[in-house]
């Protein structure tokens, strides 16, 4: 698939999960600006609408005013202060969300140069599950995977065994 595209493992697993649940005839609202993965989704036939870089914590008009079949947020919720409100405003009946998992041996990511490239939340799987449940979603499928690195050390070794990413497909509760 996208073996030459960094980070290929995450892209391949995310795309496989997406294809498993969402037909290419659906239009996706992909939270966040256009990025390498949104381009990949378009290349395989999805219609993808990205948000415009607005601060989603303060301006959720793209979520409420755009026409879409599926709401997607790939590694975006960790940057939001209030994903609860975002999930309440989603118009579609299907969502697909992936997040980096909180790792006990690695602190939350915080860029020193980019104020937007910071993780306010790094979820444990049960926290995202609970957030979805409280906002009226039923999880239909989930998957976790590791993110190994080629560096030496205890933390890089642990990354071979401890899941780093979590993805869920959910539908609105009836």
Automatic annotation (TrEMBL):
This is Methyltransferase. The lineage of its organism: Bacteria, Pseudomonadati, Bacteroidota, Flavobacteriia, Flavobacteriales. Keywords: Methyltransferase, Transferase. One of its GO terms (molecular function) is methyltransferase activity. It comes from the Bacteria. InterPro entries: SAM-dependent_MTases_sf. GO terms for biological process: methylation.
